[in-house]
Amino acid sequence: MYNRRKFIRDTALSGALIAISKNSLATSNNTNQPIVISTWDFGVAANADAWKILSNNGKALDAVEAGVKVPEADIKNQSVGYGGLPDRDGIVTLDACIMDHLGNCGAVLALENIKHPIAVARLVMEKTPHVMLAGDGALQFALEQGFKKEDLLTENSKKAWKEWLKTSKYEPISNIENKLYDKAAPEKLPGNQYNHDTIGMLALDNAGNLSGACTTSGMAYKLHGRIGDSPIIGAGLYVDNEIGAATATGVGEEVVRNVGSFLVVELMRQCYPPEEACKEAVMRIIKKKKESTKNLQVGFLALNKKGEYGAYAIQKGFTYAVCDSKQQDLVIKGKSYY
Ligand code: SD4
Question: What predicted TM-score, i.e. pTM, was given to this entire model?
Fold first, then answer.
């Protein structure tokens, strides 16, 4: 556990030194300027669209919505939005949520046939007195708001699902990123292995406000109706404009059990630097699950009010993308427990 007293003492004695030390526990854009970070390598393209807004003095909320729409619309991305892998019944169901600097939030759960669940989540936040809409109700709301019904199951995803049906073995192999990271070709992986990667995005704008968004097709071949952490405020995403923001990726059940993103933000409130906050949240999972975490992946990503960021995952291979005025396409390998 990061020692708070030590942190305060160190900060008081040598704040400047800590900032430049190799052992510094926070990575920072060091300017308090706008910044956007997001999960995985595909976050680079998403950040680029978010950055168009942030760099024009736009709002973090608009930036994160625009940013995560990129993977949502990407037919090649089989874990978010259009083209996402379906559930065991061959149905693509999408989870998404969004949260702003005022603590407003909106979410859609198990939404079908709408390409941009994040945009619907934002309207739930802005146009209803509710936070979450699920299933048919979410679809009905989306249609009323003018969204078009579309078939989201692409030929590739249908093929992968049919392949999976041959064994129907549901076994999320959660350290799959290791294998991808080791350059295994994703198309060679059996259908049930290439099964997760959510985009979680956190942004700080010129006005010093934070927002976040998280969107996914969830675990591939899940039971119909299964909801992960991604649309659950506090689990897949949390923003507190006084402190910072956090998002999660990986096996959603473990993130929900530990209210992961809220925990990360609360740890930052206790002066944990972002990476240490993410690490402590990962350790909570590891302490409870012990041996069974060997095949489990959960990663957290955090950004604090000062623009400092960090990440930590159970398995190696978790990457995240960072974009600010100095660099637009930086990908960082997150640290990990194993
Ligand atoms: C879920 N957390 O539905 C999502 C999946 C994911 O990286 O993040 N994969 O449980």
Answer: 0.88
